[in-house]
Amino acid sequence: MIKVGDTLPATVLMEFSDVEGEGCSIGPNPVDVAKATAGKTIALFALPGAFTPTCSAKHVPGYVENQAAFKAAGVDEIWCVSVNDAFVMGAWARDQKTAGKVRMLADGSAAFAQATGLTLDLTSKGMGLRSNRYSMLVKDGKVVSLNNEGPGKFEVSDAATLLAQTKA
Question: What CATH number belongs to 12-167?
Fold first, then answer.
């Protein structure tokens, strides 16, 4: 399992874009984790699934609401990572109004989740292999802090906890 001091795995996540931007076409676009984190401070949080109750009601809204505070604390970007496809993450981004605040990144095949060792097997609930719920502060691709939740918990991966660690 990934730990403080480790480098994020060299994987590719996918991001849906509603509009064309600089070097970004409409639709799913690859995000090379190593390149996208180089020289940046990233507040990354991961969760089991888009549109799920805790994720939609508490987890994502906390990061959206605290985006300015994260920015003031030196965070360049906030990433939400989930084992869903880019189209689902794009729809969830619109629903949660994350544009310009939180990058909603798809780990469609769970490659990132498996490479970090932070997986959650929800096969019995019909959801297959998912990401565990956690948050981490990443500086230049290296994990500075990691808050891994216990099964069914939402106690340490919230925005307030990671924000306090960012300011420390």
Answer: 3.40.30.10
